[in-house]
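Repro:
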Amino acid sequence: MTPNIDAIDRKILRELVEDARISQVILAERVGLSPTACARRLQQLEKSGIIRGYSATVDATELGFMMTVLVHITLDRQNEEALAAFEKEITRCPDVVSCYLMSGNDDYLVHVQARDMEDYERIHKQHLSRMPGVARLHSSFAMRHVVKRNISPAALSG
């Protein structure tokens, strides 16, 4: 079910996507509301689950993680038990940034960050290849980010 949000809510969301640390006073000015009205709308967006939290964007390369690896994983079975076992284990892997259940040829797409090729080899050998039910791994190495967003601008236009 699509929540009932209006143009002002969308403006609030666009401003927060741009800068989640914006003060409520400045946010209210930018969207044309009083600080109190803006705070009420913000609280409602949080309560409804549209805003699920706030986070910092950390540059992994500044921390020495120079490789972004996208790993396509195929399981030997696709029943609920096999999927649940894999998902339980992949959430425990500290090198995984995100994991998606996929349609098509692969069952999962896993985003991993590694310091270098040796570090990725460790992740591959010690973690990914040992996940329950893994039949095949195919790794692709990102050369650079071109677009990286939390949400598409189209989702916030209206």
